[in-house]
Amino acid sequence: MTLEQLRIFLAVAEHLHFTRAAEELYITQPAVSAAVQSLEQWYGVKLFHRIGRHIEITDAGILLQTEAKDILDRVKLMERGLRELNDLQRGELKLGTSLTIGNYWLPAKISQFQELYPNITIKCTLANTEEICDGTAAGLFDLGLIEAEVKPTLQKTLDQEEIGSDRLLIVVGKAHPWYTNPIITIDQLSETAWVMRESGSGTQQVFEQALLDWGVDLSKLAIMLVLSSGEMVKAALECSARAAAISELMVQKEFQLDILRKVTVVSSDRQHQLEIKRPFLKLTHNQRFQTRIAKVFGEILRS
């Protein structure tokens, strides 16, 4: 049974006339007769009584008429839904984002998108960079947003695009001696206790790479705490004499209130100031279909 056969049958049932049904559908009368006969033969029922030059619908025909109308109405609703999805009138976007991006950079982008497309539902999952990479590769997210590198095993699976950037800052609280002397050399990094993010965190990955680039041996640092969120790191710094690397986006309020302070790191000869910059990356699966919703949201992320 095809949708076209159902449309032809309903036209015949409405007009109780093969020729008029053919005229309405702009097809030949033999094509109408063939469609009805095909249904009757396949299911072993009579849909119409042929009485002279007239036809009457049978009980089987009445049953099919009721069900066929329901089926075609549902098809119309489905087609309308698909068109609305393409026109961004409805639909859902599943985002997976690392914690820093999701808490501090992404909300403004989501608000901008929803002002333009208020009927699109956005579901956003926050996790560390490794989990977002794995989830995007598994199809759990339409888009993944991270601030570190994709692990080698997924680099052939995930396409990457830079859509923003951030800086990591060395930060301390008032109890730390660097608070009043906020310029240090690379060599002094090993003279304090540290609060670090967990393994798999984008922040931790970028900081460890920066230390490697600076020639600093991570094993020489006194790591006193390992925490799973930037908010926990900030709280730990406020009440201790420890240092941490943290996103510039996360500490603007604390800087204004003088709760935390940025520490500037310079080279051993004090000739060069060192910075830690990192890109924000949009991830997509290179073999999965990207909806128009995901593509338009990607354009807003770049704006």
How would you explain this protein's 3D organization?
With 303 residues, the chain is of the alpha/beta class. 43% of the residues lie in helices and 27% in strands. It contains 10 helices and 13 strands. Strands 3, 4, 5, 6, 7, 8, 9, 10, 11, 12 and 13 form an 11-stranded mixed β-sheet that branches. Strand 3 (91-98), helix 5 and strand 4 form a beta-alpha-beta unit. It is rod-shaped, with a radius of gyration of 32 Å. The two termini are 49 Å apart. The model has no long low-confidence stretch (mean pLDDT 92).
- Structural class comes to alpha/beta
| Helix percentage | 40-55%
| SSE arrangement, N to C | HHHEEHEHEHEEEEHEHEHEEEH
Q: Sheet bearing the most strands, described?
A: 11 strands, mixed
Tertiary shape = rod-shaped
Strand content: 25-35%
pLDDT averaged over residues: 92
Number of strands: 13
Q: Count the helices. How many?
A: 10
Topology:
Elements: H1 3-15, H2 18-25, H3 29-43, E1 48-51, E2 54-57, H4 59-86, E3 91-98, H5 99-116, E4 120-127, H6 129-137, E5 143-146, E6 158-173, E7 183-185, E8 193-197, H7 202-214, E9 222-227, H8 230-238, E10 242-247, H9 252-256, E11 260-266, E12 273-274, E13 276-285, H10 292-302
Helix pairs in contact: 1-2, 1-3, 1-4, 2-3
